[in-house]
Amino acid sequence: xxxILASAEAENVVxxxxxxxxxxxxxxxxxxxxxxxxxxxxxxxxFGPIKVMLEQRRTRIAEGEEKLKRIEKQLADSExxxxxxxxxxxxxxxRLINEAKQGAHAFTEQKAQEAxxxxxxxxxxxxxxxxxxRDRLNLELKREFGRxxxxxxxxxxxxxxxxxxxxxxxxxxxxxxxx
Amino acid sequence: xxxxxxxxxxxAWLSSLVPALASEGGGDASLPLNATPxxxxxxxxSNSMLMVxxxxxxxxxxxxxxxxxxxxxxxxFQNFAEWLVESLYDFLASLLGDYMVKxxxxxxxxxxxxxxxxxxxxxxxxxxxxxxxxxxxxIVGFLxxxxxxxxxxxxxxxxxxxxxxYWALTENGxxxxxxxxxxxxxxxxxxxxxxMIPIFLAVGVLEIISIMIRPVALTFRLFGNVYGGExxxxxxxxxMPAKLxxxxxxxxxxxxxxxxxVQALVFMLLTAVFLRLxxxxxxxxxxx
Lengths: 179, 288
Hints:
The structure holds two protein chains of two kinds. By secondary structure, chain A is an all-alpha fold. Chain A has helices at 8-20, 25-157, 163-178.
């Protein structure tokens, strides 16, 4: 059984030892077959499927982790995009408000200027009207005064005054009054 | 702290002292060194062979139960089987490396499970005690611990030796294998190298003798431990009357449970380490 032990004496010792322990070819081969059978059964029905399942689970976990990382990245990107959009919206809103404020201010200024211009216009018109009225009243007053002076002179002198006399008397009287 | 198990164990120990002191030289029960045919009409079926068949049947049933309806979220047997296989795989990977464990896991895990199951079912009451009387008036058990038969342990030891040689050659090549055994380890030049060559040649010869002894050592270590344990239980049980025979052996049953596990681990670890020693650099080429 063990060709390595060459000498006959050694063979005898080994044979005796193995015989004492009940080692013989039929039992040895039967146990060897049992062992091989266990290996085949375990490999085919246990280790194979279980390792496939473990590998499948490991792959799924790795995929899940990969997906999680991707989702986290997408979330971070999305948060960044949202923050940027909010910031942009804020900027736009501030700009619009400023523009509106500026527009309103310009409009108010414009309307105020228009109101001022209108008021000045009204004042000017009123002043012009007042001046015209005063001039007209002055003229009427001068005429009346001239007529009174002429009438008075005519009554005092008893003479009918000509148009030239009346004009000259009026001018003298007015010059004296105004002087 | 719960002291009940301790007290029970102590009582069991003490109970064994009484008959031991009272007996005259102990019982005559003794487990024969060799496995014996179960029936005289079937001389090629031994009682240890039946035990191994039982172990094979149990392992097969367990495998079928664990892998019949596999789910991605494991439960029950599948959960246990996955835990067992994954733990063994990771443990062996830490010893052998990722490359070698992929190639050799099936062998080491099978060895571990077969030895473990065979050792533990060998402790079931009735193994070795239920049987028939032989011509000398001794009971020949229908069942005998599978690893208490040198044929079984020798089959495993020699199978490993053949596989070890195959893996060593395929991973190292013939040149690498011989270099691993005979070449000087370390860097030597000139005269030092010339002096080292004969020394390492002699070391190589010792290494070959060591390699040849390994399966024998594996065989007898496992057989000796299991046979010794069973013999101890037999002797202890013979110390008491039949109805109380279990008492002195009871504490040793727990120890034998542990021995069954430790021996399965030792056999697997030693074989894995032997392979690791010869395939230290295996897979590096593929890796690079």
